[in-house]
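REQUEST FORM: STRUCTURE PREDICTION
Request ID: SP-0412
Submitted by: Lab K.M.
Chain count: 1
Length (residues): 71
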Amino acid sequence: MKVKLGERLKELRARDNISQAKLAEQIGIDNAMIAHVERGKSLVSIPVLILLAKIFNVSTDYLLGLKDTRD
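STATUS: Completed
RESULT:
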């Protein structure tokens, strides 16, 4: 199974016009971490994954690529 977190995160940021820096600030992690996640170099912790899902109003399954629908 390929995790699609980076692709989905980048797509959702673009949709909502949120910069990597702004998102990093909202969830309390380093800006570089967002870039690493989007490039597929890193994953996030479960609490951060949940925060991302809440910020973008999608399911964690969608962020991970387990579902193709956002709910």
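NOTES: The first helix runs from residue 5 to 16.
Reviewed by: T.R.
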